[in-house]
Amino acid sequence: MASIMEGPLSKWTNVMKGWQYRWFVLDYNAGLLSYYTSKDKMMRGSRRGCVRLRGAVIGIDDEDDSTFTITVDQKTFHFQARDADEREKWIHALEGTILRHTLQSNHSTVLCFLQSVGLMTETDPSHFHLQEAETGFVPSVQDFDKKLAEADAYLQILIDQLKLFDEKIKDCKEDESRCIYNVLSCESCVLYHVCCSLQSTINPVDGVFQPAPLNTSVVSASAMPTQTTLPTDGAQVCKTEQRPSSLPMGPVVTVMGSLQTPTPNSTGSGPSAPSSSVTSPSHMNIPPHSVPDFSYSSSEDEFYDVVLPTFILERRSLLEMYADFFAHPDLFVSIAEQQDPRDRMVQVVKWYLSAFHAGRKGSVAKKPYNPILGEVFFCHWDLPETEDPESVSDGPLPWSSKNSVSFVAEQVSHHPPISAFYAECFSKKIQFNAHIWTKSKFLGMSIGVHNIGQGCVSCLEYDEHYILTFPNGYGRSILTVPWVELGGECNISCSKSGYSANIVFHTKPFYGGKKHRITAEIFAPNDKKSFCSIEGEWNGVMYAKWATGENALFIDTKKIGIVKKKVRKLEDQLEYESRSLWKDVTTNLKLKDIDAATEAKHRLEEIQRAEARERKEKEMQWETRLFHEDGECWVYDKPLLKRLASQRH
């Protein structure tokens, strides 16, 4: 038996209704995961059973770092490793085996289908190299990614044609015409499932599409190599080359563009609030069984050339999305109004937990534009029931008042992509400084985002600084109806007062469960037991249980009002402000003119590339506009803390 891995795992048995120890052997060549009651039984060849891995789908549970499942032939097997590291080793080995044997079965079937519907010929230079496959060639992940993008483009062609047929079908009485309509409808559906199948094959761990058993007569198992190396970097998984369709069949999407690290709104950490000067784009209501449009996405160093559905685009910049942390400015400034350090920590937690829901007015996830290096965004909020006193002439926004919450953001780095932002309220003597470096990973039908960085809430009257981190985000079901969830453990701590909080954003468990759950614990200095426990949904209602035994509503995000941010009109903005930079892209996306939007995006990218080349030739470093690097952090040049200190002196 040509095993590549063996060792102990626990297997769930329905008979015993519990976990039982088994010795497992993974046979790479046969595509089998065999199990024995003990290692001795394995040595004697007394096998208890086996799991066939061709076409299998691996599932993992973010709530439990040691369990995983294998689903194949409409059966699900549950396994438990000793720890997360051991589970990762098994999953990596299983991925390789699944990929190899699924490629064997899917390779020829996809080719035959594409040829049968006339989308590929034997002489096509982009052919899957069938003859090479018969002699041992295994298509790479990039080959499959190219075909996925190509299938997306053909799918869009069929969608466009079906829209034209829809307009005429009511008046159509000829049987032949109706037959053509039915054929095109079927081909559209099949192509859509081909996309899902290819996507699932690229990453079978997180794929949700399970192919049926297929005929493997075209490519034999003996022709396959004995080892397949799976790429672990998202950039390797997602690369594809520019392949615009040459078929003259109406408006065709350009299969190009690339995906930057998805941001907290598409992944959950930055909600979007309405603006007073520009109407927020409406959320698309997607009817059941509809096939999404596909369009361009923007660029980043983690992913290249990944085509996303149009409705994922937020039609505004990531920098503007970060402003939505302050969609409830009254909660933010109320931190400084609390007299007791314990109350201030509780209020920080309340503001923090309210900062993620504002943009989630619909169930469809949105993806913002990736900021250009040097891009900035300015806005402010006027607090409810406050007078309009004098402006802050030396503040970040000279046109805002002392009672306003002012916000500035800048894209301070392109590689890696780092955004820095700052907010303050002069009258309340409170400020916030943060930087986020988003690092993404492609997960088959999902996108995961690791938000690296931190924020700092500073209450200047009390000389307190609350350091906080951000949750990871996940964009799920990106090929169908995308939705977003947050995951991971975050911390808030104040070194001066000693108060701290642990917040856990729970991803949806693999076995049922609810979406968007959070739990939080707030601790007093040197206490191991929390004085406040919070649970609920970050985009819904959260309840607090106090050490006294009292249970009370902590915050209801569905009932608290969102304060509109105020942004200068386009004609008053600087050329490198977000809305001014992206106005052509935004306008064309609203008009659903994808070609024009892509062209406008390319113009911005070309300008950025030209400036980068010029700096390289002149050996010049990029100079940021509003922030500077301080150790591992990015700090606003003129924070309220520094300005008040200079006034005292």
From TrEMBL:
Highest taxon of the lineage: Eukaryota
PROSITE patterns: OSBP, PH_DOMAIN
GO BP term, pick one: lipid transport
Annotated GO CC locations: cytosol; Golgi apparatus; membrane
PH domain mapped to chain residues: 2-99
Keywords per UniProt: Lipid transport, Lipid-binding, Phosphoprotein, Transport
GO molecular function: sterol binding
Region (Disordered): 255-284
Reactions that this protein is recorded to catalyse: a 1,2-diacyl-sn-glycero-3-phospho-(1D-myo-inositol 4-phosphate)(out) + a 1,2-diacyl-sn-glycero-3-phospho-L-serine(in) = a 1,2-diacyl-sn-glycero-3-phospho-(1D-myo-inositol 4-phosphate)(in) + a 1,2-diacyl-sn-glycero-3-phospho-L-serine(out)
Family the UniProt entry places it in: Belongs to the OSBP family.
Protein's job: Interacts with OSBPL11 to function as lipid transfer proteins. Together they form a heterodimer that localizes at the ER-trans-Golgi membrane contact sites, and exchanges phosphatidylserine (1,2-diacyl-sn-glycero-3-phospho-L-serine, PS) for phosphatidylinositol-4-phosphate (1,2-diacyl-sn-glycero-3-phospho-(1D-myo-inositol 4-phosphate), PI(4)P) between the two organelles, a step that is critical for sphingomyelin synthesis in the Golgi complex.
Protein name in the entry: Oxysterol-binding protein
